[in-house]
Amino acid sequence: MKDGIKILFFLFLSLIGGFNSAFAQTQDSYDYNSEFTWGINKNSSGGLIGGFTFKKAKKRSDRVLETYGLEVMNVKHQQEVRRSSAYTGNYFIYGKSNYLYALRFQYGRDFILFTKSQQQGVEIKAVFAAGPSVGVVAPYYIERTVDNSYFSSVHEQYNPKNPNHSFNNILGTGNVFEGIGDSKIQMGGNLKAALNFELGIIKSQVTGFEIGVLADAYFNKVNLMPTAENKSIFPTVFFTLFYGNRK
User: Fold this and answer.
1) Per-residue confidence (pLDDT) for residue 177, from 0 to 100
2) How do 98-114 and 149-157 pair as beta strands?
3) pLDDT confidence bin for 20, thresholds 50/70/90
């Protein structure tokens, strides 16, 4: 985490250092007024796929875009480890009691540091955004044995105080979205800083990636794993592949 932040900070300073010379350059750049992008996110607080991003941007000047964004993420506890049942081979996360799905609403500014020609080069932006976060805390269900019989099972939210929820009694996870109706809401906010690299060669399309840091902060601690230390602030380093269109 710390090394990733240092690398991003160094890149950002390098780009800022070259901003004045880039601003003074005259290029055969192409104009656009707005763009819409969506992306797939990988981050240090998520799984293989952390979630999805959506952003609408509108130019306020030649170098500044006003942005509105939404991120839908699955936030994991740093101590989560997938284990497998010795009896079924199914995977589950031992000690996990709740999921955290983060809905991040963002308002911000994109500052164009380097423009590009119509069919060559890279457009680089410095990205800053902030806004409210809505945390959906959904119960994590396990499948466990009944009376130590592996031919009979029930689905329940994991509870470390339940003697029937010992490791050897767990056969796997519950069904997808099981218990979602019992979710609770946690309110908070988020803050993001990133570098955006647009690589597309077609004027009407946007393709590229974004790297940066983000922090979610909730008003109360989110109890993801009852037997571990839980927290209310979730910092993360992220990488997003995005695609979209502009006009």
Assistant:
1) 84
2) unpaired
3) very low
The residue among 79, 96, 75, 222 whose CA lies nearest residue 159 is 96
Phi/psi class of residue 122: alpha, beta or left (left: φ > 0; alpha: ψ in -120 to 50)?
A: beta
Q: What is the pLDDT of residue 119?
A: 59
Which residue from 166, 118, 120, 126 is spatially nearest to 145, judged by alpha carbons?
166
Which two tokens mark 54? Answer: 């959506």
* Tokens standing for residue 240: 């997003």
Domains and CATH numbers, the chain: 2-246 (2.40.160.20)
Mean pLDDT value across the chain: 86
Q: What is the greatest pairwise CA distance in the chain?
A: 76
Q: What's the pTM?
A: 0.83
Q: How far apart are CA 8 and CA 5, in angstroms?
A: 5
Token representation of residue 194: 């990133």
**Other CB atoms within 10 A of residue 36 CB:** 15
Tokens 């997808």 locate to: 176
User: Virtual CA dihedral for 151, 154, 155, 161, nearest 10 degrees?
Assistant: -110
3-state secondary structure of 167: helix
pLDDT tens, residue by residue, 154-195: 999 999 999 999 999 999 999 888 888 999 999 999 999 999
Q: How far apart are CA 140 and CA 177, in angstroms?
A: 9
Which of 119 and 59 is assigned the larger pLDDT? 59
Let me know: does 191 contact 214? Beta carbons within 8 Å: yes
Say yes or no to pLDDT of 28 above 70. no
Q: Please, which residues have CB within 8 angstroms of residue 3's CB and are 6 or more apart in sequence?
A: none
Instruction: Name the residue with tokens 């497998």.
Output: 84
